[in-house]
Every structure is written in structure tokens, then in C-alpha cells.
Amino acid sequence: MIPFVTPGDYIYLLMADLASILICVALHRLLGAIARRQGVLQDWESFGSGKKFPMGLPIAVAVLIYLTANAFGFLPVERL
User: Fold this and answer.
1) Half-sphere exposure of 28 toward its Cβ, with a 13 Å CA cutoff?
2) Do 69 and 12 meet the contact criterion of CB atoms below 8 Å apart?
3) What is the pLDDT of residue 80?
4) Do residues 63 and 9 make contact, with C-beta atoms less than 8 angstroms apart?
5) How confident is the model at residue 78, as a pLDDT?
6) pLDDT tens digits for 36-65?
7) Residue-wise over 54-71: b if at least 16 C-beta within 10 A, else e?
8) CA nearest 62: which of 17, 21, 30, 32?
9) What per-residue confidence (pLDDT) applies to 53?
10) Angle of helix 10-38 versus helix 56-71 axis, rounded to 10
11) What is the distance between the alpha carbons of residues 9 and 13, in angstroms, rounded to a whole number?
12) Domain ranges (residues) in the chain
């Protein structure tokens, strides 16, 4: 995802990445608990893998947040 980020915006990407990781981990744990209680989605590998977490979704969400914020002008523009 680094080729899509300007060097001055790394901190904004890290903040978006942290927020998306926290939200996605919480949602994954919640859905896993609901799935175990209801007895559904037992064949999903990510729910039965213990403490491992699939990081693809939070990384993709962070890049989408960054690119959307940049496209709509929510990030500050550096003046040279």
C-alpha cells in the first residue's frame, strides 16, 4: 500500500491503519463469539484458528480510508 501514499502522509495512514485494526479485530471477535454460540459458520477458518487474525481486511480498509480522505480533501496539504 505504500506506493499509494505520499511520504508526508505516512502518519495519517498509520492512524487509519490503527483505527481499522482495532475495529476489525473487535468485529471479528464479536462475530466469532456469536457464531460459536449459535453454532453457525463453524467451517470458517478464521474463527477456528485461535488467536490468529486475518490482517488483509484491516489493511484494505485503511488504504480505502486514506485514499477517500485524500480524494475529498480531508488531509492537510503541505505547502512548499
Assistant:
1) 21
2) yes
3) 42
4) no
5) 65
6) 888 877 777 777 777 788 889 999 999 999
7) eeebbeebbbebbeeebe
8) 17
9) 84
10) 140
11) 6
12) 7-71
Q: Which three cell numbers stand for residue 44?
A: 470458517
Query: How many CB atoms sit inside 10 A of residue 1's CB?
Result: 12
| Phi, psi of 27, rounded to the nearest 5 degrees | -65, -40
Q: What pLDDT score does 70 carry?
A: 86
Maximal CA-CA distance, the chain: 58
Q: Which three cell numbers stand for residue 64?
A: 480505502
Angstrom distances, CA of residue 15 to CA of 4, 21, 58, 61: 16, 10, 12, 12
Q: How many CB atoms lie within 10 A of CB 20?
A: 20
pTM: 0.76
